[in-house]
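>> received
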Amino acid sequence: MPLLLAACGAKAEVEARPAMWLVEDADTHIYMLGTMHALPAGTDWNRGKIAEVAKSADELMLELSPQQLAQAGMVFQSLAPRDKPLAMDARLPAKALANYRKLEAGTDFGGDKLDDWAVLVLMGQRVAEQAELSSAAGVESGLTASFRAAGKPIAGLESAKAQLTLFETLDPATQRTLLVQAAENADNALKDVSAMAAAWTRGDTQALAKVVNEDVDAAPAARKAIITDRNRRWSGWVKTRLERPGTVLMAVGAGHLVGTDSVPAMLSADGYRVTRVQ
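>> returned
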């Protein structure tokens, strides 16, 4: 989810070997790369097998096409406001409120005027900023640049509106659960982001799944809407795309490619041959 991670930073170069899978038939090869939408500057992920696949692929499939990603901010602004303002101290218990105030210090979230899900998104952006992550250093940004330079098509699995509407249409109780949980755990947010990035860097899918699951397992309705249902739709896209020949690089958030309800797991359960290639 691109809006959850966007900030700037500078770090020493780190070599990354993120997990990637291949699903194929006789004349079609679809590589599925788990991405981080934002990374520390200097993260070197575009080498070896990934560079080879990017060079050979006929097309790039992302969560959002570059055109849709450019519209995401405007869509967020249209969906995020509440019908009536509600003070944050009426939404959060004492500990969560204190952590929230600490996180928003020096910024202007305008949380009282926003839906719970929108406040959650802004909190995620703030944590990414504090962790010195950069969307410019993220995988989607790098792949988009290389495919554009090669004149190869880039498409998206979703629209910005559809993606954000997944959050907007979560029931109020689920939104509140996610918000309270995020605020209560804000003290550990930087550590969790670092753990996620480290697991992704070394291709540790079990550790990555653990971090991702901790975020959403407390809200089953959110997990269903944001992860499981989307993975099922994306698995359907893979099956349909296999009916046409060619080589595709599908690059989506790493959380969608790990765990028992991941895209690779769903495809394998349906009898497709899925092989981890990195």
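>> The longest helix spans residues 220-241.
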